[in-house]
Amino acid sequence: MPGRIEDYAVIGDLQTAALIGRDGSVDWLCLPRFDSPACFAALLHDESAGHWRIGPAEGGPATRRRYRENTLVLETEWDTPDGTVRVTDCMPPRGEAADLVRVVEGLDGAVSMRMDLVLRLDYGHVVPWVRRHDGDLAAIAGPDTIWLHTDAPVHGQDHRTVADFTVGAGQTVRFVLTHQASHLPRPQPVEAHTAIESTDRFWRDWMDRCTYDGRWPEAVRRALITLKALTYAPTGGILAAATTSLPEQLGGTRNWDYRYCWLRDSTFTLQALLGTGYRDEARAWREWLLRAVAGDPATLQIMYGLDGTRRIPEQTLPWLSGYEGSAPVRVGNAAADQLQLDVWGEVLDGLHLSRESGVAANETAWDLQRALLDFLEGNWEQPDNSLWEVRGPRRHFVHSKVMAWAGFDRAVKAVHHHGLDGPADRWLAIRDRIHADVCARGFDPERNTFTQFYGSTGLDAALLLLPRVGFLPWDDPRVTGTVDAVRRELCVDGLVMRYHPQQDDNVDGLPGTEGAFLACSFWLVDALHATGRRREATDLFERLLGLRNDVGLLAEEYDPVSGRQLGNTPQAFSLVGLVNSARELSGTATRTTASATDQHTGPS
Ligand SMILES: OC[C@H]1O[C@H](O[C@H]2O[C@H](CO)[C@@H](O)[C@H](O)[C@H]2O)[C@H](O)[C@@H](O)[C@@H]1O
C-alpha cells in the first residue's frame, strides 16, 4: 500500500525525481526523465507496480528523517530494539547516466535489514529480464536497462530482487541503481559515498547563491531547493510537479499529469527564483520559452513537454488502480490544447519582470512579445478555459481578461520605461478598453465583488491576484469587497477553495469536488497583508507552513476535513506561494508584479 501523499520526500538530479516514503520505499521514479514511463509506480497502485524498499527487516515507518541542511540528500533513520540504522538517499546531478544512490549505515547495535527491489518498466506494466554481469544485476526491458551495483548479497525471488543483511555500528552497505538505454554499453557506476558528497556540495553551492534574508528562512530555502529540483536542467524547462494522477479528491477522477512545463506555473516559479537571487534559472527559462513558443503565436500552447515538445496527448493507464483507488491514472494532458488567455499575460509579465530585474535584454524576446500582443489584440474578447483549465464550456473569465490587460500594460511600460519599439498608444487604448469591460461586466455591485466570469454567480480565488498585477489598487472598495467575498464564500476552515466546482451549472465540467488549493491560500495571505490585516496574514501563513510534511513539502491541495494533502507533489504552484508570501510578510519582496505607483491610471 502506498503511504499518504505527505509521507513522501523527494530526491532528484534535475532530470527526474524519486519519491521515497517514510518506510524507506521508493514508490515513484521515472527514468531517464521526469516524463518517462515510471519503473517504480507503487504510488499509483501497489508494490507490484514497482518499488524499492530498504529498511529494517521488521518493516514500519522511520523514527525520523530530514534532508541534510541546504541539500536534497535525504537521511532516514529507524530506532529498533536491536539498534539504530540510517539510509542516506540521493540522486547525483546527472553525469553519464541517471543514478539513484542509497547507503545503509549502522549507527548503533546491529540491525537486520531487508532490501526488496521490484522493477516494473512502463508504469508497472513490464517485468524486465534480470541478468548478472560481473557481479552486478542488469534488468532489461525494451529501450531500458537498469543496473544494480551493491555490496549486499542479493538474490531473485518471485520476480523481485531481495537482500537480507545485518548492519552493525560503523558498517555501511551501498546500493547504486543506474539507468541506461538498453542499446548502449553499461555506464561507469558512481561510487556511492563520493556521489553523496558531491550531491551534498552541489546543493550547498546552489543555496549559497540565495539572497533571501527574511523570516522563515528554512521553509523558504527548502521550497527553493524543491523548485530547483523541478527544473529540467538540459533545457531550462520548469515542471508543475513531479507526479501524475495524485488525486484532488481521494477516490475521485480529478487526476492529472503534471510532469510538464506550464507557461503559467513556470512564470510564477520564475518570480520566486528571481526574487531570491536566482537569475541564471530565469535566463535559462527565458531561452527555453523562446525555443518552445517559436513559430506562430496563434499556436502558442499553455504547456509543453520538458524540451518544448508540443504533443502530449492524454491517455489512461487501465492496469493501474490509482492512488487509493483514484482512477483513472492519466499520462499526457489534454489541457495542452485549451485556450487560456491568462497565459499570454503571464508570459508578457514574466518577461517584463526579467527586464526590470536586469536580466539582459534579448531582441528575439521582444519580437516574441510583439507577436503575443498581436494575438492578444485579436483574441482578448474570446471566452476561454481560464487558469483553472475548466473542461466545461468556455466563458469570459475575469482573471483571464485581467491578465490580457496586464499583457498590454507591460507592453506600454516596455516602450515608456525601456525604450523598446512599439505602438504604445494603441496598446494603451486596448488596455483601457479591457479595463472598462471587466469593470462593467465582471463586477457585481450588489454583492460588491468581482465574479468568476461575466454573469457568473460564483467566485474565483484568482480574483485575489487582480491588485497584485496592478489592475486596481488594494484599497479600492471593489478589491476589498472581493477579498471579503473570497473569505466569506470560498474559505473552508480558513483555507481557500479556488472556486466551487458545482457553481454555475458545474463550471469545470468535472464530477466530484476537491480540496483547498494551497497556492490560493497563500494568495489570501498576501491579500490580507496588503489590505492591512497583518496579524491575520501571518497567522494564516504559519498555519500553511504547518501543513507541510515533515521534510517541508507541499502538494497541490489540502483536505481540511481529513487533514491530508491532496494532488500532485511536490507542487511548484504551492511552493512558489510559500516563497512569495514569506517575502511579502518579511518586507523583502522586490517588484514581481506592479507596485502601487504602477496601478492602473486609465478610465473606470
Ligand atoms: O482541475 C482541472 C485541471 O487541473 C489541472 O490543472 C491545474 O494544474 C495546473 C498545473 O499546476 C495549473 O496550471 C492549473 O492552473 C490547475 O488548474 C490539470 O492539469 C488540467 O488538465 C485539469 O483540467
UniProtKB/TrEMBL annotation:
It catalyses: alpha,alpha-trehalose + H2O = alpha-D-glucose + beta-D-glucose. InterPro entries: 6-hairpin_glycosidase_sf, 6hp_glycosidase-like_sf, GH15-like, Trehalase-like_N. GO terms for biological process: trehalose catabolic process. Residues 218-582 form the GH15-like domain. GO terms for molecular function: alpha,alpha-trehalase activity. Its EC number is 3.2.1.28. It holds the Pfam family Glyco_hydro_15. Its cofactor is phosphate. Belongs to the glycosyl hydrolase 15 family. This is Trehalase. It comes from Catenuloplanes niger.
